[in-house]
Design brief:
Layout (H helix, E strand, L loop, with lengths): L8 H25 L12 E5 L8 H14 L4 E5 L11 E3 L5 H4 L1 H10 L3 E3 L3 H11 L4 E5 L11 E7 L27 E5 L8 E7 L1 E4 L5 E3 L5 E6 L4 H10 L3 E7 L20 E4 H7 L7 E4 L1 E6 L1 H17 L1
Parallel strand pairs: 1-5, 1-6, 2-4, 2-5, 6-7, 7-8, 11-12, 11-13, 13-14
Antiparallel strand pairs: 3-4, 8-15, 9-10, 9-14
Length: 325
């Protein structure tokens, strides 16, 4: 929604509905915090990786970074997710790198593939944690999304935001992109800005691409070897992916935007030019393997998150785990 990033007349027109949204969400949060509504406390520390605004902010790379950082401290990590877009008949569901992304969801399958830690999906986070802990000896649980899921108690919270978009026009849904007011940032443990610093950020995340991988052959090529091609993305902010490729010197002849968590099929790509490279995100690639073409390449990225605040945050989690042993 373009009007979410400016204070246009449409946004002001929708403000009464935003007030209603605030009233309902605030009452719901208060009910859980006061103990009137029952919430679940996991037997191990829980870290939420979420955001205040809708749209692509870069949560999945942060989850992968966090898991690897905690593993480097010697901790056994499990991941839970709502599994948005999954079409399984059974919840909770343990997800591995081999799980069909239609059943397991694109992001959970990608997380399992990149981290090799146990991942469990369910709209009921308590059930996901209980199944995970019954099968694996986890020291800490990382929740992909769920900042506003107050039915699950948490020990630490990370907010990820797009540095350029920030919090948009500052209005709540539907007048703006926010699920909660900006004052919510005062109570979280770490604020990560994707791309550059902004007025809210404590640390900056840079998504670093190094090579492209062919979907059919698994051949790796340096991105500097490509001069041109086309790109498509079914993520929250496709333009970020396209701009990344262009900044690497790749001329994009065509770009194709799909909705986040798009369900891909071979028919969607029939119009694509066959004699040029087609680039996609790793998140999209896990869904395109069954009908991949020889000129299709995905571009994995590594989240580079540095700074004193990030180091101290990892230490706090490690200390919490050690204190509970």
């Amino acid at each position: 929604m373009n009007f979410w990033y400016s204070k246009s007349w449409i946004a002001y027109l929708l403000l009464p509905f935003s007030c209603l949204f605030w009233l309902v969400s605030s009452c719901r949060r208060w009910l859980f915090q006061s103990g009137i509504s029952k919430s679940y406390k996991a037997p191990v520390p829980v870290v939420i990786v979420g955001n205040l605004s809708v749209g692509g902010n870069g949560k999945t790379p942060v989850v992968i970074w966090l898991v690897k950082a905690l593993q480097a401290e010697g901790l056994k990590v499990g991941v839970i997710s709502r599994g948005y877009g999954s079409q399984t008949e059974v919840y909770p569901l343990l997800v591995t790198s081999e799980t069909d992304p239609v059943k397991g969801g694109d992001e959970p399958v990608l997380i399992a593939k990149r981290t090799e830690v146990p991942v469990c999906i369910s709209p009921n986070r308590q059930q996901a944690i209980e199944l995970l802990l019954s099968k694996f000896p986890c020291d800490v649980i990382v929740s992909d999304d769920g900042l506003q899921h107050y039915k699950l108690q948490r020990d630490f919270e990370i907010v990820v935001m797009d540095a350029v978009r920030g919090l948009g026009n500052g209005f709540l849904l539907p007048a703006g992109p926010l699920r909660e007011l900006s004052s919510r940032l005062d109570s979280v443990d770490l604020i990560i800005a994707n791309g550059q610093a902004n007025q809210y950020s404590q640390v900056i995340m840079n998504l670093v691409p190094q090579y492209a991988i062919n979907l059919l052959t698994n051949e790796k090529r340096s991105l500097t070897e490509f001069k041109s091609g086309s790109a498509f993305a079914g993520i929250g902010n496709p333009q970020r992916f396209f701009l990344m490729l262009q900044n690497l010197g790749i001329q994009l002849n065509n770009t194709y935007e799909f909705q986040d968590h798009q369900k891909f099929s071979a028919e969607l790509f029939e119009k694509f030019v066959k004699n040029e490279p087609h680039f996609m995100t790793e998140k999209d690639a896990v869904k395109c393997l069954p009908f991949a073409q020889e000129n299709w390449w995905y571009v994995p990225v590594e989240a580079e998150i540095k700074g004193k605040s990030a180091v101290e945050f990892i230490k706090k989690i490690t200390q919490k785990v050690n204190d509970g042993r």
